[in-house]
Specification:
The longest helix is centred in the N-terminal third of the chain and has 21 residues. It contains 19 helices and 18 strands. The protein is α/β, with parallel strands linked by helices. α5 crosses α6 and α8 packs parallel to α11. The structure holds N-{4-[(3-aminopropyl)amino]butyl}acetamide (Q9C) and zinc ion. N-{4-[(3-aminopropyl)amino]butyl}acetamide binds next to α13. The site of N-{4-[(3-aminopropyl)amino]butyl}acetamide has 16 residues, from α13. This is histone deacetylase.
Amino acid sequence: MAMAGESSNNNYGDCDGKSHRKVGLVYDETMCKHDTPNGEDHPECPDRIRVIWEKLQLAGVSQRCVVLGGSKAEDKHLQLVHTKDHVSVVKSLSTKKKDYRRNRIASQWNSIYLNGSSSEAAFLAAGSVVELAEKVAEGELDCGYAIVRPPGHHAEPDEAMGFCLFNNVAVAASYLLDERPELGVKKILIVDWDVHHGNGTQKMFWKDPRVLFFSVHRHEHGGFYPAGDDGDYNMVGEGPGEGFNINVPWEQGRCGDADYLAAWDHILIPVAKEFNPDIILLSAGFDAAIGDPLGGCRVTPYGYSVMLKKLMEFAQGKIVLALEGGYNLDSIAKSSLACVQVLLEDKPIQGSSEAYPFESTWRVIQAVRKKLSAYWPSLADVLSSNLIDQKTPTPIIVFSSSDSETEDYADDILDQMSRLNIENHHVDTVSTSWRRDLSKVDVWYASFGSNMWKPRFLCYIQGGQVSRGNKKVCVGSMDKTPPKQIMWESFPHRLFFGRESSVTWGVGGVAFINPLTNLNDQTHMCLYRITLEQFNDVLFQENGLKVDSDSPLFGLDTLQLVEKKGSIPLASGGWYGNIVCLGKECDIPILTMTPPSEAYANTMIRGLVEGGRLSEEEAKAYIDNAASKPL
Ligand code: Q9C
Ligand code: ZN
């Protein structure tokens, strides 16, 4: 169903007189009806496609595309890649069925929920990708983006999994090859940039040389979802399909534009030139995006736009994007917009990536090239050492939670994040230069207030919301690596409290310490060993600033200064505008933050009054007293 007033009355010449490409967009609100049966929150939520659609409308780009409503997949097309059984099981999940019956079916699959509308949405998602791919193959459209859910790339021939019911992209590929030979599509390149391995798609074309499947994903030697060896680089296909399956398995999280573009430049693009596809289908999950709670990677909208642009050089630009994963609503909306702007070819791509690939990235790329060079001669050359010497060293992680723990934690905070609108997380203008430098330096962040409670502090690193009944959500740090070490210490400082609640955290209070040493008082502190980059992100968030600043609040020079002077004010002001150095531990400086006391006296008084703790007079006396007490 197309939105009223939207649909097909497009002119492709714009007001600027330039002619644009005919870009198809599929959006159908019906796919929002697939949801958890009891209203629990889940990262794969209806708002995912809504926010993308709204973003495209607000930016004025959907109006310049051909908008198609969803269309239902036919059983016989689904059966090109799925078993008859699987198609009929999904079909049977009708509205009439009771929730407990569906829950039983869902529980037999891995990471699947079902409600009365899941079946309809699944048929629409697959059918929509088929229809869009058909129109692009026919030449009626130049390219397009199917904003669909449930996603598809984990779905296997006889099994739903990983939030996927039908393998939308695989169905579309097989449809073109097997059902529409007259369209002349003989070779299809499927690119899967979702942060997870496209295990389903790999299986479906394992022995098929007509489909070159390329998946780049977080793998971590088989520890990342969907765990196991399927996503390994030595999985190259079999029989006639040998060499037509390419996996680029990241060994670590935090991969960003530099890593992905290196995989493009040194694997995908040379192979695509040799393969020379007739059309490209893109499993476009946006869960490798910066800010994604499940992916833990850092691809920016700029990064996605460059990757897409490079693919548009093939198959005369015939490319079809189908949404897969992507769970940070803001990130997926911005990344999608960046991609549609590339499809429209309406302006040069803007942005830059200054970072280098990780050392592990070069290792993976070299291993893939070596393995695949037997099939793709362009991969045979050894990469020059000048090139691979340009790398970001991997920090040594002393304590890190296991993958599943990390993901469980992410799932946990997500139930809030999917509901609440994450506060303006600007991901499109990331300056990485200062981050690169500060990410190599560790500090202890000594917390004395609510951040002593680890889950609460972790929100500043990993994003999320802890205090219940509060609208604000933290975006977290750019680098979501958990603290490398945690320990407790006591310091000779006075601890006192102001405000029983704050805008960011709601009820829970805000604690201060007096920055002057007071040997009579002992303040217990929890020390988190994090990078100086992360410390800046904590500072940004504690002071109500955005984390995408192109300069740090607290750089290396300031660090030196505070080690010497003990305490310094930050230029930007804000709540915790005073940084205090409490000494060193393992030769790493211990830093904490506290407000400059006079400047905040009034705010604290107001907090105490609003919190009903003290009358105004009493609060004034209390603060005066605390400030004037001899130390
Ligand atoms: N500890 C897509 O992005 N996570 N699917 C399960 C179990 C499942 C992701 C975690 C992630 C599925 C399309
Ligand atoms: Zn994914």
